[in-house]
């Protein structure tokens, strides 16, 4: 059968791939000569319908203000807001070894909040709603990419249902284990952190104070992210070999261990949901682009989630690639010259953020007394420097 032709194919309708599809579709609709452009968005799983009566999902992301703006441009923010979001107004970080601590507050920089904690499902479902209703997007779901044929002027993708589609450009937004990246023979540099992140939703004796709490333990950070109903979503970084024991523990024992690890900052832990864990590793694709191919989001890079930046970087990738494609005067959207502009604009930021996270991880993992003393001194000194502190927080927020 003859392949169906598109202008762009996007593999992966997760948070990043769907953002790109919506940005492009909205952008094309505003250009007279691009009005007829068509996008195929291929996603393996239908996103779950949001149900406000259901408890918070285990997977949440801290969404920065810049990502909020991009999601607004994508047309999904209002729907996200109507479902369920949890603004956070402060961030408190402290060192388990010593007295070092630092506090960031939205009020200090004249902002209403520092960002929002949002369930990944809420973001993905809201973007999928947009994509499904946009006349320029064909939402191909549930479908997976199986084979790829790259010719000089066209890429042809074969899907699991046997259908074939083609376009001058294919974008991989299919996550850390990107099938497109493998089929395109793009290698990745990978660093295994030997850590897992245990996630759960927990209740505490005291309210969360709309504050993101993070305690740096020698084994890794423990984060409590505030949810609007007063509970918290936790990400507890644990050595990979010790994580299974924490997953298997009785609820009572887990709550006691968690409370101790958190120094009972919000009183006793009063409830815990089911628990899940994810391996943490850092990756960088050696190339983000090849002729007719571009990688974005986790398909291009993953980082340690200790500062909650992974999807925010991916959303910035989507915004940059959309900008380059929408502003291009070239008739060939898959030209290497055009795609390289995207890679040049994004790789530096992604690598720098990855290195910074890596630096924090190593710095706080050190137990030598000289490092501990210097680290605690540095944290406390920085806490007393509002100008620098505000600059850091504004950079993290993207404002
Ligand atoms: C514990 C934990 C906490 C985190 N917290 C934060 C945080 O607070 N803030 C933050 O910014 N980031 C955070 N991250 C990182 C963030 O979750 C990821 O960066 C983000 O999910 C990447 O989005 P993505 O769309 O690129 O990839 P994914 O979310 O992996 O989406 C990929 C999509 O592609 C689909 N797919 C895969 N293969 C195929 C195929 N062959 N064909 C078709 N479809 C396919 C999948 O079904 C999926 O929908 C965290 C990560 C972890 C593990």
CATH level-4 homologous superfamily of the largest domain: FAD/NAD(P)-binding domain
- The tally of helices reads 11
Second CATH tier, the architecture of the largest domain: 3-Layer(bba) Sandwich
Quaternary state reads single chain
CATH class of the largest domain: Alpha Beta
Radius of gyration: 22 Å
Structure in words:
With 399 residues, the protein is of the alpha/beta class. It has two domains: 4-71 and 121-190 and 282-358, FAD/NAD(P)-binding domain, CATH 3.50.50.60; 86-116 and 195-280 and 368-397, D-Amino Acid Oxidase, Chain A, domain 2 (2-Layer Sandwich). It has eleven helices and 22 strands. It has helices spanning 15-29, 65-73, 77-83, 120-133, 179-183, 243-248, 251-261, 310-327, 336-365, 369-383, 386-397, and strands spanning 4-5, 8-11, 39-42, 60-63, 86-88, 90-95, 101-105, 115-119, 137-140, 145-150, 155-159, 164-167, 170-172, 188-204, 211-217, 220-226, 232-239, 269-272, 276-285, 289-290, 293-295, 301-302. Strands 6, 7, 14, 15, 16, 17, 18, 19 and 22 form a nine-stranded mixed beta sheet that branches. Strands 9-3-2-13-21-20 form a six-stranded mixed beta sheet. Helix 1 packs parallel to helix 4 (120-133). The protein is globular and about 65 Å long. The termini are far apart. Bound molecules: flavin-adenine dinucleotide (FAD). Residues 11-17, 42-45, 61-62, 144-145, 173-175, 179, 197, 199, 235, 278, 297-298, 305, 308-312, 314 line the site of flavin-adenine dinucleotide.
């Amino acid at each position: 059968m003859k392949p169906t032709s598109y202008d762009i194919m996007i593999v992966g309708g997760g948070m990043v791939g769907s953002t790109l599809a919506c940005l492009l579709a909205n952008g094309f609709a505003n250009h007279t000569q691009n009005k007829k452009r068509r996008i195929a968005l291929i996603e393996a799983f239908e996103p779950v319908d949001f149900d406000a009566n259901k408890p918070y999902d285990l997977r949440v992301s801290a969404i920065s203000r810049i990502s909020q703006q991009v999601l607004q441009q994508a047309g999904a923010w209002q729907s996200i807001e109507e479902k369920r979001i949890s603004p956070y107004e402060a961030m408190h970080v402290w060192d388990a070894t010593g007295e070092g601590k630092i506090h960031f507050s939205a009020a200090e920089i004249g902002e209403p909040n520092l960002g929002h904690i949002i369930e990944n499902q809420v973001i993905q479902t809201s973007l999928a709603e947009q994509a499904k209703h946009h006349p320029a997007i064909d939402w191909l779901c549930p479908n997976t990419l199986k084979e790829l044929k790259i010719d000089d002027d066209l890429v042809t993708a074969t899907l699991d249902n046997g259908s074939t589609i083609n376009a001058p450009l294919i974008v991989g937004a299919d996550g850390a284990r990107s099938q497109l990246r493998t089929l395109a023979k793009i290698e990745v540099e990978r660093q295994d952190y030997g850590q897992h992140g245990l996630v759960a939703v927990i209740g505490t004796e005291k309210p969360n104070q709309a504050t993101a709490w993070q305690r740096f333990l020698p084994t890794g950070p423990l984060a409590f992210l505030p949810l609007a109903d007063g509970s918290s979503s936790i990400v507890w970084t644990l050595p990979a070999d010790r994580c299974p024991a924490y997953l298997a523990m009785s609820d009572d024992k887990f709550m006691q261990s968690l409370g101790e690890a958190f120094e009972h900052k919000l009183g006793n832990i009063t409830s815990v949901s089911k628990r899940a864990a994810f391996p943490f590793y850092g990756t960088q694709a050696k190339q983000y682009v090849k002729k007719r191919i571009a990688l974005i989001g986790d398909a291009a890079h993953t980082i340690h989630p200790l500062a909650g930046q992974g999807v925010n970087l991916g959303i910035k990738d989507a915004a940059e690639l959309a900008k380059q494609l929408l502003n291009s005067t070239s008739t060939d959207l898959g030209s290497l010259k055009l795609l390289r502009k995207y890679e040049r604009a994004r790789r530096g930021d992604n690598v720098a953020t990855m290195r910074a996270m890596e630096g924090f991880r190593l710095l706080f993992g050190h137990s030598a007394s000289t490092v501990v003393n210097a680290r605690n001194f540095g944290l406390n000194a920085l806490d007393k420097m509002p100008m620098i502190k505000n600059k850091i927080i504004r950079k993290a927020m993207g404002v």
